[in-house]
């Protein structure tokens, strides 16, 4: 039972990672995903220390205390710059 | 017989679009709306003091379409508008290329103007697109502008 995690734009490049999967049993919230992934190394720590970082679950913006569950698609990205 | 339509078209695509075809779409089978407001955003050749050579646009497929549709729904709650078309391109774009199109019809011009501006302002701060510029000094991901958030907050 997994959670899919996606990265976009500058984060994707800094981490050299577009997507990964986590065991849903290990994480309960967005903040816990950030905490867990921050232990992967310096680049990861830096990305998750970005104060402007945004998160979405299943295509909807959420806060860091949002509860995640198996099958969710979580995304982390910098502030948007379209238009 | 007078016909009222309130179709929404959302397109997120690599390829360019034809302005006159988009206006035709907005006006098709729509004899009740006298106002048609359109906006086109294009790639500028300069930004924050540097010459821009080209632009790369990334987006979050799936979330982008949902986000744009939600913005149009919010506009429909606030103004009496008929047909709405939003197109946003992604991928590699050159100077002068069209990036975004917003078109709104309405019986009244004020609703069409306001809704089109609202859609653009919200798109700027909430649709998951990111621009990377190739400048004379190398490439850089753009930072979000505080002013864009202020423009969206005014609604």
Strand and helix map with partners:
The complex is a heterodimer of chains A (83) and B (155).
Chain A: E1 2-7, H1 9-15, E2 19-23, H2 30-38, H3 42-48, E3 54-57, E4 60-62, E5 73-77
Chain B: E1 8-13, H1 19-27, E2 35-42, E3 46-47, E4 50-59, H2 63-78, E5 84-89, E6 91-94, E7 98-106, H3 109-126, E8 129-135, E9 138-141, H4 146-153
Parallel strand pairs in B: 1-5
Antiparallel strand pairs in B: 2-7, 3-4, 4-6, 4-8, 5-7, 8-9
Instruction: Tell me the total number of β-strands of chain A.
Output: 5
Q: Please state how the strands of the largest beta sheet of chain A are arranged side by side.
A: 2-1-5-3-4
CATH topology type of chain B: Aldehyde Oxidoreductase, domain 3
* Helical content band of chain B: 25-40%
Low-confidence stretches of chain B: none
Poorly predicted residue ranges of chain A: none
- Report how far the terminal alpha carbons of chain A are from each other: 37 Å
Q: How much helix is in the residues of chain A?
A: 25-40%
The structural domain count of chain A equals 1
CATH class of chain A: Alpha Beta
Q: In the CATH hierarchy, what is the class of chain B?
A: Alpha Beta
The tally of strands of chain B reads 9
Per CATH, the architecture of chain B is Alpha-Beta Complex
Rg of chain B, Å, rounded: 16 Å
How much is the average pLDDT of chain B?
Answer: 95
> What's the helix count of chain B?
4
Strand content of chain B: 35-45%
Strand content of the residues of chain A, in percent? 25-35%
- The CATH H-level superfamily of chain B is Molybdopterin biosynthesis MoaE subunit
């Amino acid at each position: 039972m997994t959670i899919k995690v996606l990265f976009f734009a500058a984060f994707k490049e800094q981490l050299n990672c577009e997507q990964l999967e986590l065991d849903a049993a290990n994480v309960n919230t967005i903040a816990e995903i950030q905490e867990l992934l921050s232990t992967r190394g310096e680049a990861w720590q830096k990305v998750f220390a970005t104060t402007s970082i945004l998160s979405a679950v299943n295509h909807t913006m959420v806060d860091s205390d949002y509860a995640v569950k198996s099958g969710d698609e979580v995304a982390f990205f910098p502030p948007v710059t379209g238009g | 017989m007078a016909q009222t339509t309130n179709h929404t078209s959302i397109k997120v695509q690599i390829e360019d679009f034809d302005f006159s075809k988009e206006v035709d779409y907005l006006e098709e089978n729509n004899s009740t709306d006298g106002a048609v407001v359109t906006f086109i955003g294009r790639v500028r050749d300069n930004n924050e003091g540097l010459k821009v050579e080209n632009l790369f646009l990334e987006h979050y497929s799936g979330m982008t379409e949902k986000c744009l549709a939600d913005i149009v729904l919010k506009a429909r709650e606030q103004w009496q508008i008929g047909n709405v078309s939003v197109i946003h391109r992604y991928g590699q774009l050159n100077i002068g290329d069209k990036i975004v199109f917003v078109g709104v019809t309405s019986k009244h011009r004020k609703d069409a103007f306001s809704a089109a501006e609202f859609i653009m302002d919200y798109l700027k701060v909430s649709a998951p697109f990111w621009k990377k510029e190739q400048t004379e000094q190398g490439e850089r991901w753009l930072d979000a502008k505080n002013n864009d958030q202020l423009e969206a907050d005014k609604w």
